[in-house]
Amino acid sequence: DKTPTTFTTALAHLHTHNLPTTPPAGRPVPLPTYPFQHKRYWLDDAAIPAPQATATRHPLLGAPVIVAESDEVIFTSRLTSADLPWPVDHTVLPSSAIVEIAIAAGEEVGCATLDELTVHTALLMPSAAALRLQVKVGTAEEGRRPVTVHVRGDADEAPWRLIATGRLTDEDRHVDDSGEGEFVEVGLPEEQRREAAAYGLHPALLEAAVSHPDEGLTPAVWKGVRLHATGAHEVRARLTEIGDYTVAVSFLDADGLPVATVDSLSYERLPEERLTGSNGEVFRIEWMPVEMPEGEEPTRWAALGADVPGTQRYDDLAAFGEAAGSEDPFDFLLVPWSPSADDDPVGAAHEASGRALELVQAFLADARLDKTRLVVLFRAPEDLATGAVRGLLRSAQAETYGRVLLVDTDAENVSISELSAAVASGESEISIRGGTGRAPRLHRIPASSKTAPKTASKTSSKASPGTASETTPKATS
Fold it and tell me: What's the CA dihedral at 79, 83, 86, 88 to 10 degrees?
């Protein structure tokens, strides 16, 4: 681009010919109040639906495809947290959403009653990525159709996982409202009421009504689920106990007219191995062995408030900062963490967290310590307050890469050579046990998608999900 060169050359010619080069004074011209108009000529990078696949009007169900030479129908959709009708901070897709999806699929094929649905696994929703959902409605036989719900991650190579199986029917049963029990009133927040019209029974409403007080118990086996009205944003639900961890549920609107009924709903406790992630797996933190290379000790170590062989002691951070500013910089400042003296666990957590925050803020704010790394040493066993401190320091690590290191040990004394090897490993957090270093790693746990659900152990004599004080749906499972 020669525009700048051409412009400056023209100014030079004007100047050499004794012509003015300063532009005349002008007045500001206001910009238009409307946005500038423009046209796009490039196609958007949008997904193209499969041929002859017309999307349903349901926000969760997706497009149906009729299988050739069969009356089987497969619905496919791609979901993210933004597509779900409840707050995005909920990480588990509630079984009420799966019930709503199954009923919507049944209505598309003329079988609007959910005869039975068993939710085999709790589905962990990804916080940022998407998941793919597939609902298959099988061939009709005597007015009934099998239905299955599979899920997988967004990647093409991700495996499909079965999360629910059931049966749909075209039978329209009589509404029985003779049950006993108190009514629970639940309603959608104002900002969600408009979207209720897109659902048979909004999953957040259904989940709020049937949530069990014991968070470990989740709605697992649904029988005889029928919708009598759609689009409700506020309902009165009555739960009648009909067995151990089994209830019948009826939903009425403000006028006392039926909205939905559930003949039977059984609660079960899902173990950890039956939590299914969007890629069919869940993860947990495990401490794995890492190499601690042997090498020369750093030239300068300092310790704060403790006598540690091989280090120079300073009583407080201010004194250390003064020394660091007048001498060669220290490579590491070791802070042996001392537990809180408060006997109250909550008070101890507050005191320790405040002390850690003051330490790390003062350390990072002192420009004289820019070349020094902070090493906080913890000794096992740890208490609640120490756990809070470690969590706070991990946040500091995320903001200041490489400046803060966490080391823990079960030994009474740890040598500088061991600490030097630990920091030389390159780990931001390391545990030393018997001279061996371990660092936290994500460990993949394959979820069993074909294991039949087990009945929950009995912990109370009454299911009694929900309370009369509930007014806002909680999408927990």
Answer: 80
Under a CB-based contact definition with an 8 Å cutoff, are residues 446 and 398 in contact?
A: no
Cis bond upstream, residue 381 (ω within 30): yes
Strands 183-187 and 161-169: unpaired
C-alpha to C-alpha distance for 224 and 423, rounded to whole angstroms: 61
φ, ψ for residue 358, nearest 5 deg:
-60, -40
Candidates 75, 77, 97, 95; CA nearest to 85 is 97
Nearest-angstrom CA–CA distance, 342 and 4: 69
Report pTM.
0.53
Helices (H) and strands (E) in the chain, counts: 7, 22
- 8-67 pLDDT, tens digit per residue, is 888 888 888 888 887 766 677 776 666 666 666 666 544 444 444 455 678 888 889 999
Judge contact between 254 and 234, C-beta under 8 A. Answer: yes
8 Å CB contact between 246 and 462: no
Asked if 463 and 212 touch (Cβ cutoff 8 Å), the reply is yes
Q: How far apart are CA 394 and CA 371, in angstroms?
A: 20
What 171-176 contacts at long range (C-beta under 8 Å, 24+ apart), as own/partner pairs, is 171/113, 171/115, 171/143, 172/112, 172/113, 172/226, 173/113, 173/224, 173/226, 175/226, 175/228, 175/250, 175/258, 175/261, 176/261
- Express each pLDDT in 52-69 by its tens digit: 445 567 888 888 999 988
Token representation of residue 127: 């916080």
* CA–CA gap between residue 336 and residue 314 (Å, rounded): 12
Largest CA distance in the chain: 103
